[in-house]
Amino acid sequence: MDDVRQCQTINRAQSHLLIRLTGAYRTTPVEALQVATATLPLHLQVKKLDAMYWIKKKNNEKVTRILHTPVDKQDVQEILTKAWQHLWQECPKARRLYGIIPDVEITGGLLHFLTDHGPFRQKLKDMNIVEDNLCHAFGSVATPEHVMLKCEETENLVGEQRTLLEDMEIAEALRTPELAIVLQEITQKVTEYYRKKFISGGDRGQARRRPDADQ
Ligand SMILES: [Zn+2]
């Protein structure tokens, strides 16, 4: 999967899908669509599946051949994100978008915020993953707006950036390039915070198995 032509063919297939999903023009570079929708390039997704399979089989030799370094499960995402970041930096296309979103990871959090599908207990309750929709530390309903823009739990992390968006409509912030970047940074940091919290089990006490998980 390191063959450049092979990668291009695979990513062209992904391009059709992303163009249909986003309604973008057919001429939009796939690299731009991947970054804007926080979608890992398809050839890296294939690598990921491949690597995960061999890690499970405890075959280090194969894993090393795929990722060029022997790793365990937790590191795979990080290595592939780095590979994606490198491709985005070197990519000759979509340089204006690169100027706005230089970090491939940054849209993930914003996408969570805008689509509702993220580390928000209101959403998780809907999906029957947690018992209630409250932000436990302070008892408010954990909506995307609360979690990203108000919650005191992450005040130390993003408080300073939040003050820049005070009393501002989200749509307006998104139309203002400097503030759109602030919003991206906040949503990314908060998403990352909750991702780590879930991984370390910090929020697992309140989580419960989905009722259909046994079948
Ligand atoms: Zn809160």
Keywords:
215 residues, mainly alpha, 2 domains, globular, disordered C terminus, binds zinc ion
Could you characterize what this model shows?
- This protein is mainly alpha-helical and 215 residues long.
- It has two domains: 4-100, no CATH class; 106-206, no CATH class.
- Helices cover 63% and strands 0% of the residues.
- It is built from twelve helices and no strands.
- It has helices spanning 4-22, 30-36, 42-56, 60-67, 73-90, 95-100, 106-115, 121-126, 144-150, 155-164, 170-175, 177-199.
- Helix 3 (42-56) runs antiparallel to helix 4 and helix 10 (155-164) packs antiparallel against helix 12 (177-199).
- The radius of gyration is 19 Å and the shape is globular.
- The protein binds zinc ion.
- The site of zinc ion (ZN) has 8 residues, from loops.
- Residues 135, 137-138, 140, 146, 151-153 line the site of zinc ion.
Q: Unreliable stretches, pLDDT < 50, 5 or more residues?
A: 204-215
Name the average pLDDT: 84
Question: Strand fraction band?
Answer: under 5%
Cα(first) to Cα(last) distance is 36 Å
Helix and strand string, N-terminal first? Answer: HHHHHHHHHHHH
Quaternary status:
single chain
User: Which small molecules are bound?
Assistant: zinc ion
Helix content: 55-70%
Biggest sheet, open or closed, and with what strands and sense?
Answer: none
Based on CA atoms alone, the radius of gyration comes out at 19 Å
* Structure classification: mainly alpha
| Whole-number tally of structural domains | 2
Helix segment tally: 12
Globally, the shape reads globular
The total strand number stands at: 0
